[in-house]
Automatic annotation (TrEMBL):
This is Tripartite tricarboxylate transporter TctB family protein. Residues 7-139 form the DUF1468 domain. InterPro entries: DUF1468 (IPR009936). The chain crosses the membrane at residues 38-57, 78-105, 111-130. Coiled coil: none annotated. Keywords: Membrane, Transmembrane, Transmembrane helix.
Length: 147
């Protein structure tokens, strides 16, 4: 089987359907956020479905092969995302996001100090946005000095 844009679009639609199906029944035992836990998987499913539909309608017949080294970066990104998910609660949102952003920046050729500054700014900025503006409770992890 050859991989083309339309096949990828079909897989994206199937993934979106699975994500929507699993996310539809998410309920929190108590209300601690204004939107609840269902909003993120349903929003993500909508975006993935839109991209999959676009690939089905506008896809080319054959996808171009990945350039040299791309598969290694893709595998490294998958490992980084897995590590981010595993470290999210124990390290906390700010630290794990800053670390993830720094390593992703390096993966795409950024300089260490630029990636570290950008990662720290992204971790702190997103924390403030979600915590203060959206009122979403995020784990503090190692930065939880109050407990």
């Amino acid at each position: 089987m050859f991989l083309n844009d339309r096949v990828l679009g079909l897989f994206a639609l199937l993934l979106a359907a699975l994500l929507a199906w699993k996310g539809w029944d998410l309920q929190a035992p108590f209300s601690y956020e204004p939107v609840g836990p269902r909003a993120f998987p349903l929003l993500l499913a909508t975006v993935i479905a839109g991209c999959g539909a676009w690939l089905l309608v506008r896809g080319r017949e054959h996808a171009e092969p990945n350039p040299p080294g791309a598969n290694t970066r893709i595998a490294a990104m998958a490992a980084l995302v897995t590590g981010y998910a595993l470290a999210f609660v124990s390290l906390g949102f700010i630290v794990s996001t800053a670390l993830m952003a720094t390593l992703v920046g390096r993966l795409f050729g950024g300089r260490w100090h630029h990636c570290a500054i950008g990662g720290a700014g992204l971790g702190l900025g997103l924390y403030l946005l979600f915590d203060k503006v959206f009122e979403v409770v995020l784990p503090m992890g190692v930065l939880n000095f109050g407990s």
